[in-house]
Amino acid sequence: MREKKGFNEFIRGLSVKWKLSIGFGVVFLILLVSLGTSAASISKIGNQVELYSKFTYPLTYNNLVAQREAVSVQRFLLMALLEKESGKDYQSSLDMSGKSAQNFMEVFDKFAKNQRSAANDKNIADVNQHVQEAEAARNKILELLNDPSTKDASAAYKIFQEEFLPPFNQITDIMEQMNVVG
After folding, report:
1. Do 131 and 105 contact (CB within 8 A), yes or no?
2. pTM greater than 0.90 (yes/no)
3. What are the pLDDT digits (tens) for 17-50?
4. CA 53 – CA 174 distance, rounded (Å)
5. What is the pLDDT of residues 66-95, one digit of tens each?
């Protein structure tokens, strides 16, 4: 209590000029501390925005484009099967399926190379394994479709259902999981 009385007496003993100077000094000191913390926070936000633009956005974009291309491979291959079955020209659908497969691999390669950490390494390896399985099945389908002695596409459709779709479904599931991990 004595110390408090001493402080009060000290303040009362000061002139108005010194009282105002101390008051403004305290306000100025608070202002400097606020500026420092704001600058540090803005710097951290800047770092997060940089990480977002360098990793999060490109990874999400490439992931979604790869998923779209995977679906396009399936769609165009199925269209080729249906066109062959109905006796129509199916080569353009096969070409589009091949182009979509090539686009998938290019975009997936970008996705795999732009990883921030090793969190998706196993998933990327799994996708590559499933791509090889699907590509082997696709090659079997192409052989059957391009064989002039086969008039119907039922054998190719069976391979499509049993050997081609399951790996591609796994690929899209894994890609979706990686999009969540991002």
Report:
1. yes
2. no
3. 888 888 899 999 999 999 999 999 998 998 888 8
4. 23
5. 999 999 999 999 999 999 888 889 999 999
- AA identity, residue 22: I
Amino acid in the structure at residue 61 = Y
Secondary structure in 3-state letters for the chain: CHHHHHHHHHHHHCCHHHHHHHHHHHHHHHHHHHHHHHHHHHHHHHHHHHHHHHHHHHHHHHHHHHHHHHHHHHHHHHHHHHHHHCCCCCHHHHHHHHHHHHHHHHHHHHHHHCCCCCCCHHHHHHHHHHHHHHHHHHHHHHHHHHCCCCCCCHHHHHHHHHHHHHHHHHHHHHHHHHHHHC
